[in-house]
Amino acid sequence: MKRRILIVASMLLIMALVACAAPVAAPAEEAAAPAEEAEAPAEAAPAEEELPETDSLVIYSPNSEGLLNATVPVFEEMYGVKVEVVSAGTGECITRLQGEKNNPYADVMYGGNFATFKINKDLFQDYVSPNEVNVMDAYKNVEGFATEYVLDGSVLLVNKSLIGDIEINGYMDLLNPELKGKIVSANPTASSSAYAQLTNMLNAIGKGDYESEEAWQFVSDLFANTVVIDSSSAVWKGVRDGEYTVGLSYEDPSVTLVKDGADVEVVYMEEGVVYLPATAAIVKDCENLLNARRFIDLILSEEVQTAFGTELTNRPVMANVKTPDYMTPISEINVLQEDLDYTFEHKAEIQEHWQTIYESLQ
User: pTM for this structure?
Assistant: First the structure.
């Protein structure tokens, strides 16, 4: 364990030096969380001691370099394993896995939204890490195959120089007439983070009822005040650069700005914040099963979970993992649970409803 901690610490030092030289970039956008209990596996998985040792691991991943650099080199050093990473978008990764179903090349898919994993669960095999015992209940691997490892939530990003004496504590404060044209959002029909923000406000204002007339009236009133742009990264950049006073954004890039000293503040809506986790899973019939299990264990280890929160500003899924001073403890945030089945099944309908409202405001 001492050797493991030294390895992780060494890698974090390298990451910190690289981060100082690199520009701030928005990470991959959110994923979805599980909402149903898992079915029992058909048969017991083999014990670790029954699995053969191999010297390689193949990972398909849509993740950012930060998440990959926080885990892959550490894993290689710990186990003396050569890791091949195939970086591609979530859809491309799934397409490759489907094409290779009878002769899989990858061992692990690392990253992507939960809905995609659930739809394609036949591509993956059951594994629940022993480290799941420390994961917050809402993000445990109840499906049996899908491991959540970091969280990202919708937030409000406020430019402190521009906000003046206007108080922003939550969604309802955005209806202040003085903020008209000073609020910015990405388009919920084109951006996954903006869609997550839309369902977050419907959930929060409608108290869990996504069809609430009160909630949709709020959406109409809010977007009468709001400038809509195409890019989610342009939202936080626009607030940072003083183009807008408030942005409907997400936690990772927003907290990164605070960490880097930008003149901004992250507001967690008093009405409630939904956190959506990124997902990883082991490919069914993969060649390097022992190493695949070890990798899943690693991303849920206390050392790496701490690195996610302190070095990358990703919210850990582990309940009692340390987070830095510039990141609000999750215990101080009003966390809401998303009805993921509803928001997935009714996505097109919700987007169309928003589009109709927005066009009526133009």
Answer: 0.73
The whole domain housing 70 covers 2-151+276-328
CATH classification at residue 185: 3.40.190.10
* CA–CA gap between residue 72 and residue 66 (Å, rounded): 10
Report residue 24's pLDDT band, with 50, 70 and 90 as the boundaries: very low
Report d(CA 67, CA 141) in Å as an integer: 20
The mean per-residue pLDDT over the stretch 92-118 comes to 92
Distance CA 174, CA 222 (A): 7
Alpha-carbon distance of 126 to 256, in angstroms, equals 34
Could you read off the pLDDT of 155-205 as tens digits, one per residue?
Answer: 999 999 999 999 999 999 999 999 999 999 999 988 878 999 999 999 999
Tens of pLDDT along 272-299?
A: 999 988 999 999 999 999 999 999 999 9
How is residue 284 written in tokens?
């069914």
Looking at the structure, do residues 323 and 268 belong to the same domain, yes or no?
no
Shared domain check, 307 and 244: no
Two structure tokens written together for 214: 């009160």
Phi, psi (deg, nearest 5) at residue 52:
-75, 145
Domain identity same for 256 and 355: yes
Helix, strand and coil content of the chain, in percent to the nearest 5, comes to 45, 20, 35
